[in-house]
Amino acid sequence: MNKLELQKTANEVRKGIVTAVHSAKAGHPGGSLSAADIFTYLYFEEMNIDPKDPKKADRDRFVLSKGHTAPGLYSTLAQRGFFPVEDLKTLRHLGSYLQGHPDMKHIPGVDMSSGSLGQGISAAVGMALSAKMSGADYRTYTLLGDGEVQEGQVWEAAMFAGHRKLDNLVVIVDNNGLQIDGDIEDVCSPYPIDKKFEAFNFHVINLEDGNDMDQIKAAFDEARATKGMPTAIIAKTVKGKGVSFMENQASWHGAAPNDEQYAVAMADLEKVGEALCQK
């Protein structure tokens, strides 16, 4: 995909996020929207995956460590063809396979059940180690929240990954600056995130604009070229990106739009889509 196609796809992913959370009357739109461009690049450009064969042995693995942003992952998987886009409207409904957090047993394309913060990166490190031990060449990617890195288990996993030189592992931190209780600096500052990962023997890439496809591409290309150590991409993003009243608002970490707000959000995204079509 070229840059414009990726941008258009990311905008469709955002529409799916807003639609799913509105339909569920619950969920986490803010951090799903901030990571939509990274989700899109991973699933449409970076990773070796096949929607027709979700469990193929040599596929690249992805673990959503910040599992509450499942709407972002689900919308991306649906756009990529793992399941119908219409099913996004069943998010969190009784009997739906699209639960509030990723479920590897019932959702095509989900490699690890997650939701307990800090645990996803540990699973990803295990997958990367497994590939090294078995001589497999698949790569493992995991997306963390910047609030999530306040969890001690994250650093245990990072210590192990650095020690074992897992250069087939890419850790992405969605650094949108906000968590459920407000600014991450005020709640329990994890800064400097980059220096912490460096201390655990990671190659660190500071991604100045984690919502920009060119910069995202450059970061993942650099990660792929890095040998002898795992990579951490610290991506500066905008929480609620693309929806005017959600951007940079901690209150939209875990809240669903009502009907009126949903209409405004979709109109915002339609405008973005129209602007992209004119490029």
TrEMBL record:
Chain ranges of the Transketolase N-terminal domain: 8-262
The entry's keywords: Thiamine pyrophosphate
Cofactors that this protein relies on: thiamine diphosphate
Keyword Metal-binding included in the entry's annotation: no
InterPro entries listed in its UniProt record: THDP-binding, Transketolase_N
Superkingdom as given in the UniProt entry: Bacteria
Leader sequence residues: none
Pfam family, any one: Transketolase_N
Gene3D superfamilies named in the record: 3.40.50.970
Keyword GTP-binding recorded: no
Family (UniProt): Belongs to the transketolase family.
The protein's name: Transketolase
